[in-house]
Amino acid sequence: MSYHPDSIRLNKAISDSGYCSRRQADSLIEKGIVAVNGEKSFLGDRVMPDDNITIEGKPLKGTDKEVFIAFNKPIGITCTTDLRIDGNIIDYIKHPERIFPIGRLDKPSEGLIFLTNDGDIVNKILRAGNQHEKEYVVTVDRPVNEDFLERMRNGVPILETTTKECKVERISRFVFKIVLIQGLNRQIRRMCEYLGYEVVALKRIRIMNVTLNNLAVGTWRNLTSEEIEKINDMVKTSTKIAASETPKEKILTKRSDRGNRN
Fold first, then answer.
1. What's the pLDDT tens digit per position in 225-246?
2. pTM
3. Is 106 an active-site residue?
């Protein structure tokens, strides 16, 4: 089947506009609320640059301004674009552009999270197996010993799989630092719980090449051009699913994307 060289997939057109990610666009299309030139659209449809795309009858408005911010999420804020949920991250930030979070931090956790209007970068960062590090400082309810650290490093059985090896370092009696390359649902909390520990506080301090530094809780900043350039370089070889990922891991990854993380 041949396509016009100027056409692109509908979900990409929606994500490129900054409205939402490609995956979220697919969900909107499946719900039957996306139309192209007045006709209901379907998954896999392609559009031309001058096509009129509407969502729930409202024209899709693109933006020429690329937004990519780092936000220090407070405890109690929910990482969702659903404005019906009290304390959602979008209402809290009140950014003038339409943005959405990359990944999640669960409501009791705090720390660094990215938000953007670039659907492509969202997909690339979230894809499994790309070795994109996320660093956390975790406080638990019992003294951290060497056995706990070693078992955390080597992998813990949760969610019908075993977590990947990771870097874990003791900071103080009740505090440790962990660097993950996964994003299973509430992964750190589940790992600790399996080993008989309860997480008292969890803070993400780094994603890839970006750190919190002195960013105050509840505030955000634009990423620098150098930071964005480095991120784009790190994700340019991202694949949809890593070759080493098992079928079970694929399923769990999809499930974890829908839930809150860590």
1. 999 999 988 888 765 444 333 3
2. 0.71
3. yes
